[in-house]
Amino acid sequence: MTGRERVLNAIRCRETDRIPWVPFVGSHAASLLGIGAEEYFKSAELISEGAQLAIERYKPDGLPVTFDLQIEAEVLGCDVKYSQDNPPAVFGHPLTKGKKLEELWMPQKDEGRIKTVLQAAETIRQKNPDIALYATITGPFTLALHLLGTDIFMKMFEDVDYVKQLIAYCSEVAKKMSEYYIHAGCDIIALVDPMTSQIGPDMFKQFVSPYASEIFEFIRANGAAGSFFVCGHAQQNIEAMRDCKPENISIDENISLEFVKQKCEGMQVSFGGNLQLTTVLLLGSETDSAKDAVRCIDSAGKTGFILAPGCDLPYATPPKNLEAVTKVVQDEYEQQIARNMPDESIKFEDISLPNYQDTQKVTVNVITLDSEACAPCQYMVDAVKAVCGKFGDKVEWQEHKIKTRDGLKVMAALGVQNIPTVCIDGEISFISRIPPKEELEEVIRKKLQKKAESV
């Protein structure tokens, strides 16, 4: 059985000879090439060369062309900031700068970096006919947020018709991108919509479900399979995602594989995930990586499951950790060895937090994966930065990225379980939810008032 056959069988809940392995290689490919992420994301040749190196080193059954949720947004006029070790990030939103929705257009396959990734897809497909090729496209809710910014959350209450028109437009963009990628040789279209973790099931069913369902139907009608990618604390939406009828749902470590398996079993929807990105693959050891792969395999079972990271692999992920996963997934003997290995997970013995009541200032800590690489994290940091700036030197804020050991220490000390999360004076205040600016202002104002009264 080829890798392509293995993935396509698993994604449709059919028998496979073993669990398929799909590392989500995006900016990490630039690291393999020894170059910066910006150079990589702008070159079809480098994207295809990076994929080839990943295929040679990690022996995957499937692989994405790349992993970049800013391609459509950039073509449509969003301001984008490039980085040397992350995917690009959106920081300017055309619909907040005078552009009207009716002035937006349907992206063409020769525009911007769409042309770049399609050329890369064709090259990867030609060289690797036995690999399942994934394309990652921006989900309609996330693209709508890129175009409108966090204003979308207020408009979901104040101007429902406008938001629905915007998301309908974004879903047409997703269909067009799917069409381009399928014609370029991609087998699976991954609809990546991380910002849906910021809304609950009722809002999801109103603003996401009708459009995502149409996209997956379009993908099926054009001969490919659809996967619904989500990250963050999105457990509340898994049933709604499943009911959009994708072939597959892919999750990160914020949601247990057992939970998703329970919701998908019997519904002919497969699932994938959820190797831990930072504590294991980025900052852990080969042993940690092998044991985490076995955890996933034992939790998920052997039918309708694809082993994958929880999201886009960080740039600096050590190749040896991914190679350890490859060994485990391909060899049951290696799985037995990994099950009996001692736990080498990161321990934090020097965790300490300041006494937040000893100062008149209010301290806001934002725990993120990385605001330069994760859309929900980026928009949460933007909201905190904007609000804290209004209070001058009375409020200080800091982002703690769990891509670093120091960030993980702060996360553990504060008792944070999900990202992104906002903590105010050491108390968890907003979990995986971008706070409305007025609400965040009110919480901070009350904290300041309480401190002033205690003097």
UniProtKB/TrEMBL annotation:
Residues 369-444 form the Thioredoxin-like fold domain. Pfam families: Thioredoxin_3, URO-D. It comes from the Bacteria. GO terms for molecular function: methyltransferase activity; uroporphyrinogen decarboxylase activity. The keyword Transferase applies. InterPro entries: Methanogen_methyltrans (IPR052024), Thioredoxin-like_fold (IPR012336), Thioredoxin-like_sf (IPR036249), UROD/MetE-like_sf (IPR038071), Uroporphyrinogen_deCOase (IPR000257). Keywords: Methyltransferase, Transferase. Coiled coil: none annotated. One of its GO terms (biological process) is methylation. Gene3D superfamilies: 3.20.20.210, Glutaredoxin (3.40.30.10). Residues 3-330 form the Uroporphyrinogen decarboxylase (URO-D) domain. This is Methylcobalamin:coenzyme M methyltransferase. It comes from Sedimentisphaera cyanobacteriorum.
